[in-house]
Design a protein that fits this description.
The structure holds two protein chains of two kinds. Chain A is α/β, with parallel strands linked by helices. Chain A has ten helices and ten strands. In chain A, the strands form two sheets. A six-stranded mixed beta sheet of chain A has the order 6-7-8-3-9-10, with helices on both faces. A four-stranded antiparallel beta sheet of chain A has the order 2-1-4-5, covered by helices on one side. In chain A, a hairpin with a 2-residue loop joins strand 1 and strand 2. In chain A, helix 3 packs across helix 5 and helix 6 runs parallel beside helix 7. Chain A is globular, with a radius of gyration of 18 Å. The model of chain A has no long low-confidence stretch (mean pLDDT 90). Chain B is built from 13 helices and two strands. In chain B, helix 11 runs antiparallel to helix 12. Chain B has one domain: ABC transporter involved in vitamin B12 uptake, BtuC (Orthogonal Bundle). The radius of gyration of chain B is 20 Å and the shape is globular. A two-stranded antiparallel ribbon of chain B has the order 1-2. By secondary structure, chain B is mainly α. Classes of the chains: A alpha/beta, B mainly alpha. At the A-B interface, helix 2, helix 3 and helix 4 of A face helix 8 and helix 9 of B.
Chain lengths: 245, 334
């Protein structure tokens, strides 16, 4: 079976700084991969490179057997890669429902937008908002949502395009414990529909939700395996998780 | 504390807008019955400018494309009429206005593709400078091109016609301009009242996010830019037909800047605001130029500065405080 994602020796340099150094990883269909490591380890950089927000300095990226590292972010999205950003970037001046309708409507032609008939998308948007628990606030401007709600809206927007690979950058950042639990439930449903890579600082959260974990440090991959395997890796325990795992 | 009437108005922004526009148009239609000839000429020009103002608002206020050279489309429309009518045949607006619209659309597609069809999102400053430069190039090119009259332009155009209607009197010109202003407003309003508004808002607020959702945003931007260019070109065509001449200055930076001031003063992203902005700025200029002579442009500059610093939503923002207009970003949430 073709892997959903394959990163081969992906590197990224910012001048003299090597943010990623020949990182390779493979993601199978339906797999949930946690990406952990201390600040500055290159987790978000790797995610942004896969999503197309940044270009790699070296190496190649394959999605379902197709090399994509020269594709624009929009093209990767159309192929089936969706990204939820670390900082929520919802359209604050649109309503919650409109945000999801816009996310769903990328295939709609300009004339259909003009004629005012994205009704199918509106129904689907309502279903997605129910999934992430935002039905009650669907008519509120997105700017007025709490931080946690904006993260959920981001997840709804990312999943609306029916991705086969979902990139989630710190989906629980800034959330209360209750909100983290709610997010975990949402992500479990979402993960049934697509392979996912989750960058997250909350190690317990990552261990609960991930099938496999990749550990990065200073741009290098230093460990990979199931949550239990990663926990036993001495270099991970010693250097990156402070022995808390 | 707000008056109950304002609370009601706040809850009914669309109805208020429809009533306000109906009243404005009805009032405008009565102007020829009491206005003097100079006032009627002035009002005619103002109404033609409304088309340019709302077309700029469509691209800038709603889509976030700061076109600092929008007068280039206006000039294109003016020269369409000028070139067609310089042989002495009365300009037939039923043909020339659609021709100008088509020309504006084509120019908009060409310029828009050049500006927007890259992989990277061009910053608002890049687009502003590029459009400004194009406008400047167009103005200077026409000013030295003898085939189109060089710096004197094309003058002495015959009186225009619209199908069988011979447009002769100041009243005729005024009604023509009023009809065009209403039509251009209606077209722009139809665009921003459709669900397309959501995508245009997305482009204005965070274009890169839309691209991450898989949007080819350049297509939307080029389309809106072209439609806006078409409306601006018709505005220029009617202007030339009414004044009887076309000049390279119609393409120039001065008119582009003036259009930007109308939108800023009126309130970007409201359509009605920029339309009122034209009236306010042009009337203010007229009064100030009589009283302050050469200083009136300084006063206009100070007015612009005050608006930018203290009234970011312009005239529409002031009205919005009393719940008469809907501002961008405060659109319906249903």
């Amino acid at each position: 079976m073709t892997a959903t994602l394959e990163c081969r020796s992906v590197s990224k340099r910012y001048g003299p700084l090597r943010a990623l150094d020949r990182v390779s990883m493979q993601l199978e269909p339906g797999e949930v991969r946690g990406l952990i490591g201390p600040n500055g380890s290159g987790k978000s950089t790797l995610l942004r490179i896969i999503g197309g927000a940044e270009q790699a300095s070296g190496g190649d990226i394959w999605f379902e057997g197709r090399r994509i590292d020269r594709f624009s972010a929009a093209r990767r999205s159309r192929l089936g890669i969706a990204m939820k950003f670390q900082i929520p970037s919802v359209f604050g001046s649109l309503s919650v429902l409109e945000n999801v309708v816009v996310a769903l409507g990328r295939g709609i032609g300009i004339l259909r937008w003009l004629s005012g008939r994205p009704t199918v998308e509106r129904r689907e948007a309502e279903r997605l908002l129910e999934l992430v628990g935002l039905s009650d606030v669907k008519d509120v401007h997105a700017a007025h949502l709490s931080h946690g709600q904006q993260q959920w809206l981001e997840i709804a927007m990312a999943t609306s395009v029916r991705p086969r690979l979902l990139l989630l950058d710190e989906p629980t950042a800034g959330m209360s414990p209750d909100e983290r639990l709610a997010t975990e439930k949402i992500l479990r449903v979402v993960a049934e529909q697509a392979a996912s890579i989750i960058v997250e600082h909350d190690i317990d959260f990552v261990r609960r939700i991930s099938d496999t974990i990749t550990v990065l440090h200073l741009g290098h991959m230093v460990g990979e395996g199931t949550p239990d395997e990663v926990r036993e890796l001495p270099q991970v325990r010693r250097a990156y998780l402070g022995g808390v795992v | 504390m707000r008056l109950p009437a304002f609370v009601f108005l706040r809850s009914q922004p669309r109805r208020v807008r429809v009533v306000a526009i109906t009243v404005l148009v009805a009032a405008a239609a009565t102007v020829p019955s009491f206005a003097s000839a100079p006032t009627l000429s002035f009002a005619t020009i103002v109404l033609i400018y409304v088309g340019l103002a709302v077309s700029l608002d469509l691209v800038w206020g709603y889509t976030g494309i700061l076109s600092l050279g929008h007068a280039a489309f206006f000039g294109l429309g003016a020269y369409t009429v000028g070139l067609a009518a310089r042989g002495g045949a009365p300009p037939q607006l039923a043909v020339l206005a659609p021709l100008a619209f088509f020309g504006g659309i084509v120019a908009g597609i060409v310029i828009g593709t050049f500006l927007f069809a890259g992989r990277r999102v061009m910053t608002i400053i890049y687009v502003a400078i590029a459009t400004l430069a194009l406008s400047f190039i167009a103005e200077r090119s026409l000013a030295v091109w003898h085939y189109v009259g060089a710096s004197t332009g094309i003058s002495g155009l015959p009186l225009p016609r619209l199908l069988g209607w011979r447009i002769v009197t100041p009243n005729d010109f005024y009604l023509l301009a009023l009809g065009f202003a209403v039509l251009s407003y209606a077209v722009c309003r139809a665009v921003v009242s459709s669900p397309l508004r959501m995508v245009l808002t997305g482009i204005r607020v965070n274009e890169q996010r839309l691209q991450f959702l898989g949007y080819r945003t350049a297509r939307f931007k080029v389309t809106v830019f072209a439609v806006s260019g078409g409306i601006a070109a018709v505005s220029g065509a009617i202007y030339a037909a009414v004044l009887g001449f076309a000049s390279p200055t119609f393409f120039g930076i001065a008119l582009s800047t003036l259009a930007m001031i109308w939108v800023l003063v009126g309130g970007p992203g409201t359509l009605l605001g920029p339309a009122l902005g034209v009236v306010l700025v042009q009337y203010g200029s007229r009064v100030l130029s009589d009283r302050l002579l050469g200083w009136w442009q300084v006063a206009l500059g100070v007015l612009l500065l005050l608006v930018v610093l203290f009234f970011r939503h312009g005239l529409a923002g002031l009205l919005r405080r009393e719940a008469v207009l809907e501002l961008p970003g405060e659109g319906r949430a249903r």
